[in-house]
Amino acid sequence: MANKTELFPTEGGTAAIVYAFHSLSENHLLKPGDKIAINTPIFTPYLQIPELNGYELVEVDLRSREKYNWEIKPSELKKLEDPSIKALFVVNPTNPTSKAFNHKALTAIKHAVEKNPELMIITDDVYGTFVQDFKTIYSVAPHNTMLVYSFSKLYGATGWRLGLIALNKENVFDKKIAELDSANKDELHKRYEHVVIDPDKMKFIDRLVADSRAVVLYHTSGLSTQQQMMEVLFALTHLVYADGSTDAYIDKSRALVSDRYEKLHKSMGAKEDESRTSAKYYSLIDIYRIAEKKYGKAFREYLEDNFEQVDFLLKLARKNGVVLMDGVGFGSKAGELRVSEANLPTDDYALIGKQVLELLKKYHNDFESQNK
């Protein structure tokens, strides 16, 4: 597969996302009003970019649910068989639920592509290295899938801005461009004739590169020399551990986030996900569930009726310096908080749990004083 895959190094995964949406639009692969499927909860920009002027895409929600341990059901993925759905955007493993697609989900996507062969898939696999034996969608639908990756999560190098886009040499994106009507082809010919001799034969991955540089700066590099060398060095580390041997750095990184995950969940009495598809890079904590477990259903209902999630987060930050994120922005339900296991010293995660419980206790004291 590696010999059939072409790469475009980008200024981090963020730039890769922006470039993907931009080039899909510029090349008439996605048009206003087109339906796109999004696996939620998901990294917020994937929800927001399609709604911006110039895109105006119709979002079809493929929802993962907590009662299924955040695993997306094959019945949800069956929606992709509908030819009116032009593209699927996913983060795998997911952000914020840290759940990789399992074998059933990957099989369902493979079957969906067989029924809807024009489906374009954009998969952001930045957390894949935190899941043992991770399988990307690219492994089951290589000709329909655009890969997005960033080195920042594994190597803790967010400031370096090191990412990439990958496409199979034979892909549905090129096929769909070749099938555009003559008016769109003429428009694209004029767009790219400034930088290549035969624009009609220009591959989509090369169009991504050109579009990222406003076309006419196609000859310039997006990454500095230092960034290019660092990305090469990061990538080469994987080759050192080829042929099935263990990558010691990846093993230690997994163990580190797993330890933090365990400390956080145990300190709050929150359920842990010990499945092989759990990256444990993030935790999505249901405050309502913890409140009911500790203080009963009446207190949970009180929180649901009176609980301003932003106020809870602000009080936590002001009192203890703990900064967590509201899960609603990722498409999850009210009452869920996202915690990253990447940012703080390991022992701080038990402290986060303790401080969340202390704040919940204060809310409970207020509840009791109102019900005397």
UniProtKB/TrEMBL annotation:
The organism's place on the tree of life at top rank: Bacteria
First-level EC class: transferase
Cross-referenced InterPro entries: Aminotransferase_I/II_large, Aspartate_4-decarboxylase, Ethylene_sulfur-biosynth, NHTrfase_class1_PyrdxlP-BS, PyrdxlP-dep_Trfase, PyrdxlP-dep_Trfase_major, PyrdxlP-dep_Trfase_small
Residue ranges annotated for the Aminotransferase class I/classII large domain, each copy included: 10-348
Essential cofactor(s): pyridoxal 5'-phosphate
Pfam families with a match to the protein in the record: Aminotran_1_2
Keywords annotated in UniProt: Aminotransferase, Lyase, Pyridoxal phosphate, Transferase
Protein name: Aminotransferase
Source species of the chain: Lactobacillus helveticus CIRM-BIA 953
Phylogenetic lineage: Bacteria, Bacillati, Bacillota, Bacilli, Lactobacillales
